[in-house]
């Protein structure tokens, strides 16, 4: 996906395609992807910036990222990890259950390790995922994989290959393609934004939101996000994300919904009890954003 254009960066893709994407009041956004997406909920910078750039629109965001995931849902299978159909079902069904009006899809990073030979499988998988999500009748935003930094940047050609495939599918499907068109800093830049060349750190997520917004056709002015003022909003976003994560990925789900539900399945009714906490935190987020825009 993205890094701030204020950083020293190399453009390794075609000129960025700026999305003309308009959010609507009450939009329910679901974000699908791998590690990059899942970890964002721990930091909340992208979501906070997105909400701040849409004052008064009452957007909600549900992060369904899963570390190590692919368009096939291969990381989501739990005990059915060797059953492709069940893995894919665990990717699609939670998204549809949320009744999204907007779906962000960010895949291609893990798949890119298969190189050129793996590209047809990735393209077929992304097309299958888009078809499976059609019942939501949601507006789709596709993000290409983010470039790597440091020694890992040697994989930039494969990442560009997969990013170009995402672009082509977006154009064919008339979906929004959101690409800032920049790469991570090359080797030698003092401040690293990842912990391993691939996964963003807290600093990496903090420095990227303006480029995320620009890729969506939004702008708050480069470098103008005041995280001192926005931090109370971000803390509420983090609290909301934690409550939602506990709802959709409870630690004891094998006992609640799986093959041992005969032991404690009666407690599954408590999952719905997270909803009031989530709603209260989203009211708090809305109130704080309103206060900032007075």
Descriptive terms for the model:
alpha/beta; Rossmann fold; 5-stranded parallel sheet; globular; 5 strands; 2 domains; 44% helix; disordered N terminus; 11 helices; 294 residues
Kindly describe this structure.
- The chain has helices at 35-43, 45-52, 84-97, 115-132, 156-173, 202-206, 209-215, 227-248, 253-256, 261-264, 274-292, and strands spanning 28-33, 60-63, 102-106, 139-143, 176-177.
- With 294 residues, it is α/β, with parallel strands linked by helices.
- It folds into 2 domains: 1-225, Rossmann fold (3-Layer(aba) Sandwich); 227-294.
- Strand 3, helix 4 and strand 4 (139-143) form a beta-alpha-beta unit.
- Helix 2 (45-52) crosses helix 7 and helix 8 (227-248) runs antiparallel to helix 11 (274-292).
- It is globular.
- Residues 1-18 have low confidence and may be disordered.
Average of per-residue pLDDT values: 85
Total helices: the number is 11
Our Rg estimate from Cα atoms comes to: 19 Å
Beta-strand content estimate? 5-15%
Oligomerization state of this entry?
A: single chain
Terminal CA distance: 32 Å
CATH architecture descriptor of the largest domain = 3-Layer(aba) Sandwich
The parts where pLDDT drops under 50 for at least 5 residues are: 1-18
């Amino acid at each position: 996906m993205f890094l701030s254009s204020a950083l020293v960066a190399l453009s390794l893709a075609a000129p960025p395609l700026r999305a003309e994407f308009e959010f609507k009041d009450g939009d329910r956004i679901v974000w699908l992807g791998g590690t990059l997406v899942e970890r964002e909920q721990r930091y909340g910078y992208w979501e906070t910036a997105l909400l701040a750039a849409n004052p008064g629109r009452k957007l909600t965001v549900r992060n369904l990222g899963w570390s190590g995931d692919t368009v096939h849902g291969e990381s989501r299978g739990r005990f059915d990890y060797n059953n492709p159909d069940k893995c894919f079902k665990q990717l699609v069904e939670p998204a549809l259950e949320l009744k999204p009006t907007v779906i962000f899809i960010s895949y291609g990073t893990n798949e890119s390790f298969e190189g050129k030979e793996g590209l047809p499988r990735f393209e077929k998988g992304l097309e299958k995922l888009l078809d499976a999500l059609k019942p939501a009748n949601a507006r789709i935003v596709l993000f290409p994989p983010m470039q790597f930094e440091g020694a890992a940047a040697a994989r930039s050609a494969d990442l560009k290959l997969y990013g170009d495939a995402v672009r082509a599918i977006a154009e064919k499907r008339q979906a929004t393609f959101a690409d800032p068109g920049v790469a991570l800093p090359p080797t030698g830049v003092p401040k690293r934004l990842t912990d391993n060349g691939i996964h963003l750190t807290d600093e990496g997520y903090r420095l990227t939101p303006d480029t995320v917004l620009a890729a969506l056709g939004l702008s708050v002015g480069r470098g103008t996000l005041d995280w001192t003022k926005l931090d109370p909003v971000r803390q509420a976003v983090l609290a909301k994300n934690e409550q939602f994560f506990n709802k959709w990925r409870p630690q004891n789900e094998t006992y609640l919904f799986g093959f041992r539900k005969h032991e404690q399945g009666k407690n599954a009714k408590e999952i719905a009890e997270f909803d009031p906490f989530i709603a209260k935190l989203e009211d708090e987020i809305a109130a704080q954003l309103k206060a900032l825009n007075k």
